[in-house]
Design goal:
By secondary structure, this protein is of the alpha/beta class. The chain is 47% helix and 16% strand. It has helices at residues 2-21, 59-76, 93-102, 134-144, 161-164, 181-187, 190-209, 213-232; strands at residues 37-42, 80-83, 106-114, 124-128, 152-157, 170-177. Helix 2 (59-76) crosses helix 7. The structure holds zinc ion. Zinc ion (ZN) binds next to loops.
């Protein structure tokens, strides 16, 4: 019996060790073409302002604004969304990860703006961690690059916690440098933030439903609005 007990103990130890070893690198479910929910994460918030410049709003405000616009556009395209924050509140990174991983069939998109001591640095960058996230990262970066005069900072891997601990495809978009005169002034322009949200929404919707679908759904929405007065009269 003692021998059996020690054997059970060893088996238990091996099992718990195996379970621990998966904590650092969670298994990622590749839902990049089948997802029904988009978890939107506006970077920073509350006491954490993110990148901050004397002129114009801090990163936490412009990131939230882009995420809210993106939220509206995705919902108009019949995509379910969950936001990690919808106001100026501080959400710890682990809480963001919990919200992200609570969704069974999702992708995660985090919105940020960048900062550099080198004022000349500008452009879009998109980050990912798991291989399952690469297509979405690439697609978002490509759509952002269709904005005139944009600069390509590239698609890169990164160890950011919200990416590393995600069990679904997860990307983090840096929508330009607040420290750069050109990118910073654009970020302060609400029409430009609408354009950013539009391009990111297009990438997400096309990733799920195929190319051309995003524009089509927008036209459908416009047509149905135009038809409403006729049905009323
Ligand atoms: Zn940030």
């Amino acid at each position: 019996m003692p021998r059996l007990l020690s054997r059970i103990a060893i088996l238990g130890f091996v099992a718990s060790f195996a379970a621990c070893s998966t904590v650092g690198t969670p298994r990622v479910k590749n839902t990049s073409k089948s997802f029904n929910t988009v978890v939107l994460d506006a970077g920073h918030g509350g006491k954490d302002s993110g990148a901050y410049r004397r002129y114009g709003p801090p990163e936490k405000m412009v990131a939230l604004d882009v995420a809210q616009r993106l939220n509206r556009k995705l919902r108009e395209s019949q995509v379910k969304t969950v936001m990690t924050r919808d106001s100026d509140v501080f959400i710890p990174l682990n809480d963001r990860v919990a919200i992200e991983n609570a969704q069974k069939n999702a992708v995660f998109v985090s919105i940020h703006f960048n900062d550099s001591r080198r004022r000349g640095v500008r452009g879009f960058e998109t980050y990912y961690h798991s291989g399952a996230s690469f297509d979405l990262a690439n697609s978002i970066q490509a759509k952002l690059m269709s904005i005139p005069n944009s600069r390509n900072g590239g698609v890169h891997t990164a160890n950011f916690r919200v990416l590393r601990l995600a069990t679904c495809p997860a990307v983090l978009v840096e929508c330009g440098y607040l420290s750069n005169r050109n990118d910073g002034s654009q970020a302060r322009d609400s029409e430009y933030r609408e354009l950013l949200a539009d391009r990111i929404a297009e990438a997400i919707v096309e990733q799920r439903f195929g190319s051309g679908v995003y524009r089509a759904s927008t036209q459908v929405a416009t047509q149905s609005q135009q038809q409403q007065p006729d049905t009323l009269h």
